[in-house]
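Thread: sanity check for a docking pose with zinc ion

Original post by kr_44:
Hi all, I'm comparing my docking run against an independent structure prediction. Below are the sequence and the ligand SMILES. Could someone generate the full complex and paste the structure tokens? I mainly care about where the ligand ends up relative to the chain.
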Amino acid sequence: MASELSDWIRVTHGVWRLVAQPEHVNIGLVVGDTGALLIDTGSWPEQGRRIRERAAEVADVTHVVVTHRHYDHFFGLAAFTDLPTIGHASLEQDLADPVVLEEAFELRIDPAELVLPSQLVHLATTVDLGGVRAEIVHFGPGHTAGDLVVIVPEHEVVFAGDLLESLDPPQFGPESSIAAWPAALDGILGILGEDALIVPGHGDPVDRVFAFDQRARISALYGQAEYLVKQGVAEEDAWEKGDWPFPEPTVRAALPLLYAELAGKGLIPREQLPVRPLS
Ligand SMILES: [Zn+2]
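Reply from moderator J.T.:
Ran it for you. Here is the predicted complex with zinc ion included:
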């Protein structure tokens, strides 16, 4: 197995990443003249402390962003409580979610070490690192209700969190919004130049074409489910009857969510509609 923390890998001038196990998560570091922004914190507080020590090989961390609620990005935050830390406002609710608390319990994390960022943002904020600024933006729900994206305009780099993944297909969970996800990616795609690099939550950096392809697949996933529901195909038959843009395990994981999202819009397979008796 790979060691718990990889070496720092240079993304571009002043921008670094390392890979933290066990989830192969990218930890980002953006260094300016007066500060250094860490993006995501690892899977538990001790790992966060080790990441902080390793960051000091490049630059002392002055600011931290958590891209979203999942433990491999969020649960190392306790190592940074003396610094300005930033996350989406929905993290406050997430910390009361039994699913999140169960994850922490399984990782044997002391509940006192599950901490909120010091600054909760709803839409956007900026961190000035001296000659480099980081724009931290919420483009709407997608992978979770509170995904934050970190844009570094001076170096044409975006940290996308798990809105994009290059190691595996994107992860669809109960907290995802598949219908809204493509619009969140449009927020990234809209500001990227031809040469921009995107650091996904997991996997090697990708370019605009890759991001557009994944955006199209997520859109097609939703579109295919909507089409099947309108044809009266039940959830349990949808994998067999559909033409899907992701492998079977990914689609099967997404189907309950897709059908629930569509039902929320009043779209359910016709055979399941109540039949009004003739009078
Ligand atoms: Zn995630």
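The chain has a mean pLDDT of 95. Hope that helps with the comparison, let us know if your pose agrees.
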